[in-house]
Write a structure and sequence with these properties.
Number of strands: 14
CATH architecture of the largest domain: 2-Layer Sandwich
Radius of gyration: 19 Å
Strand content: 15-25%
Shape: globular
CATH class of the largest domain: Alpha Beta
CATH superfamily of the largest domain: ATP-grasp fold, B domain
Oligomer: single chain
Length: 292
Amino acid sequence: MKIIVVCGGDSNEREVSVKTGEAVFNALKVNYKDVECLICKNKKHCIESILDKRPDIVFLALHGSWGENGEIQAALDMFDIKYTGSSFEASCLAMNKYATKSILKNMNIPAAEAVLLKDKKDLELIDFYPICIKPNKEGSSVGVEFADNNNEAILIFDKLEKYGELVAEKKINGRELTVTVLNSEAYPIIEIKPKQGFYDYKNKYTKGATEYITPAELPKNIEKKCMDAALSAYKAIGCSGCARVDIMLENDTPYVLEVNTIPGMTETSLVPKAARVNGVEFSELVKLIVEG
């Protein structure tokens, strides 16, 4: 089997993607002989390189923009090239935070109240504060800000409008959890506890900045509620393969924040941490993803 790990790209998450790709590449070499790591410059370079190499399967380790929003998946579908993770449709939905929340609420899966901000005047539609404002189609907590009132929201909108559409959602206060789902099986829950502030880009990728409790210490009934919510979200979006569902637990209600269809996969990332609780080491995890 010829496998190409595709990472890099030109999104705000390029650096993290390269780290994921290199870690996956090294882990795959444990079980497969014909493995290559392709660090893409941009979308055109990525697609042309894959077509030139004609692999049996592409392990997608791209984060953000066209690598995660369904575009690369659609291109690979056109050329009948297999790839890991979710389909074009599910990837496109999951990358759109507001669309994801709309589907979750329609399926009676708890999610924070939200408003899509296409223009500054849309801030007038918000009748709930405090709020979290973030880009509608970015990952890794890029551009996440909090506002306690309309005046603060206006300042944040001006700061973030360079990202395009924004989404404002009611701030949920509680325990931050994440659930890995692999091939429709929920893995042990991880609790995320930043030592300062919230789980932003810096706290995600700075060693020692965040404490991870694996598995999370939860009563069995609450643990089940969180796993059920994660599985329901995974299925509602139409995910396949590996995904990570981020949850905020407030008053024993698991509010789904978002669904990540290409979660970080370095050896210290959240998905491998959850897998290890089930006795699945990193090389076995990436093999399960390839063959799942």
